[in-house]
Each structure stands twice: as C-alpha cells, then as structure tokens.
Specification:
Chain A has 161 residues and is an all-alpha fold. Chain A is built from 6 helices and no strands. Classes of the chains: A mainly alpha (161), B mainly alpha (157).
C-alpha cells in the first residue's frame, strides 16, 4: 500500500467517525475501534446518564452483591485480639514445663535414705561362718537373710507406703 | 480453658506428692517380685525366680525413692541372681550380675558383702583364686565391722 493510499484510507475513516458523531449512525468505512470510540463520546456528551429502568437494575444488582459480601464477612470467624488469659496460659505452661524438668532432673541423692535395721548378730555370725570354712551351711545363712530382708522391706514400707 | 486447667492440675499433682504414689507403687511391686522369687526358688522353679529378680533390677526407680534405698533393693536382687546363675553352672553370668550390683555403690553393709561373696565364688569357679580371695577378705571385713557394731564394740580389737 502506497503512502497516498494510506492517507486516503485514514481520511475516509476520519470522515466516517465525524459522520457517526454528528448523526448517530455509522457508514461502512468505520472500523470496530472507531465505533466504540464514537459510542463512548456520544455517551459522555449526553451527561453519561443511564435510563431510569437500567439505573434501577444496576442498583439492585449492586445492593445484592453488597449484601452477599456482608453475609460472607459475618459468617467468617472474627480474628479477635488475643485475650489476657491466653498470655497467662502461655506463661503458666512454660513455668510448669520448667518446674517439671527441674523436678525430674533433681538429684536423687537429695532424698534422705531410710534408716534400715541393723542385721542381727546371729545372721552376721552365720555369714562369717560360711566365709571362714568351706562347705559351711549356706542354707542356714539364706534363711536368716530372708528374715533380715523382710525387716528391711518393712522399714522401707513404713517410709514409702 | 480445659487445657489450662489440665496444666495446672498436673503441676499441682507433681508438687503435692504424686512422687510418693510412684514410690509406693515401686516398693509394692519390687516387694511382690522378691516374694515371688523366693517362692519360685523354694519350689525349684529357677526360671521363674530369675524372671522375678530380673524384673526387680530392670524396674525404673521413681525419683521420690532415695538412691540408697533403691540400691539396697537392687543389690539384694543382683546377689540372688548371681547365686542362681552360679548354681546353674554359669560363673560368667554370675560374676556379671554381681558386678552390676556392686556398680550401684559399695557400702559397709550386708548387701555389698553378699555381692562380694557371690563375685568371689564366681571368680573361684572361673579359676581366679586370687581375685576370689580378695573378695572374700573384703566381705569378711564388712561382716566383722557389722558384728562389732551389733555387739556394741568399737571395732579395734
């Protein structure tokens, strides 16, 4: 397309646009974008007002949309500010955990041992006898030891039970 | 708020003597096992006796129980385990049990002396006569000291 031809085409489009603006109708030379421009210019030239029925319809649509949005907001959980007791709960839990760790890690040696009964001299004599001579009566010592064991468990029971 | 209440209740329970309940439960359990082992041994059920004694030494000791009280209970169980192992002809296992018991702490008491005797026997059975003699001698000294104390002596004669 030559430069003259382009110029001629542009001139024709400009004339068609001017005609459309002036008369409210377009001739065949007007392209789509020019038609849209003409429609906008005409609408703004008329004060941009909508017809009353169209205005009502748009308003009803907008109000319905606004109502829907308000409903959704009301249904959604409200992100409230953390109440004071939540902070207290946090600090309380942390303090409890620290106390628990200290309690579990506390050295067991701190607990005073139970005062256990002293072994009976007869038990000790039996113990010495079995050490002094080979083949000494181990059963007699075992029996005496069983009695001592009972008295030890009794002492522990008095302390812990 | 229930989580906060549970936390506070736990904290209060710990501070107000929950540990005493643990100690009571522990003692009840180990005493029951000790009796069970004695009954099993009396009826020649070595397996049941070993099982009960093993459960005593493996039972976790609560923090509320004095370390020395736990030592006494566990050393007594280890001594019985060592004796049963030796009677079963396993001196190595007997010695291992005696040493685990002694590792809990050696004191001038009957429980330590009994473990020394069992380790000495295990050593003797394994051919370690010198080691056995040392253990017997230490056990003898403890017995003498205890006898002196029981008879009101000062232990110097």
């Amino acid at each position: 397309m030559s430069e003259d031809e382009i110029e001629q085409l542009e001139r024709a489009e400009a004339e068609a646009l001017a005609h459309a603006l002036e008369r409210g109708s377009a001739r065949g030379e007007l392209p789509e974008d020019a038609l849209q421009t003409a429609a906008l210019l005409r609408y703004s030239a008329g004060g941009g007002e909508l017809a009353a029925d169209r205005e009502e319809a748009v308003l009803a649509e907008v109000l319905a949309d606004a109502q829907k949005i308000a409903g959704r907001r009301a249904d959604a959980p409200t992100p409230a500010a953390a109440p004071w007791w939540r902070w207290l709960l946090g600090f309380g839990t942390a303090a409890a955990v620290i106390a628990l760790i200290l309690l579990l890690a506390w050295p067991r040696a701190e607990v005073t041992p139970t005062e256990l009964p002293a072994p009976d001299p007869s038990l000790l004599s039996a113990g010495l006898s079995r050490l002094a001579s080979e083949g000494a009566d181990d059963d007699a010592y075992r029996e005496a030891l069983s009695g001592y064991r009972t008295s030890v468990y009794d002492a522990l029971g008095a302390r812990y039970e | 708020m229930s989580r906060a209440a549970a936390t506070v209740a736990l904290f209060a329970a710990l501070l107000c003597g929950c540990g005493d309940g643990d100690a009571r439960a522990w003692l009840g359990e180990v005493r029951g096992l000790s009796d069970e082992a004695a009954a099993a041994e009396a009826s020649d059920d070595r397996g049941a006796a070993l099982d009960a004694l093993t459960r005593i030494v493996e039972r976790e000791v609560p923090a509320a129980v004095a370390a020395d009280d736990a030592r006494v209970v566990r050393q007594d169980a280890y001594e019985r385990l060592a004796r049963l192992r030796l009677e079963a002809g396993d001196p190595e296992a007997a010695r291992a049990a005696a040493e685990r018991g002694l590792a809990l702490g050696e004191r001038e008491d009957l429980f330590t002396a009994n473990l020394l005797v069992q380790r000495g026997r295990a050593r003797e059975a394994s051919g370690d006569d010198a080691g056995a003699a040392r253990d017997y001698h230490r056990a003898l000294l403890i017995h003498e000291a205890l006898l002196d104390a029981a008879l009101g002596g000062d232990g110097e004669d």
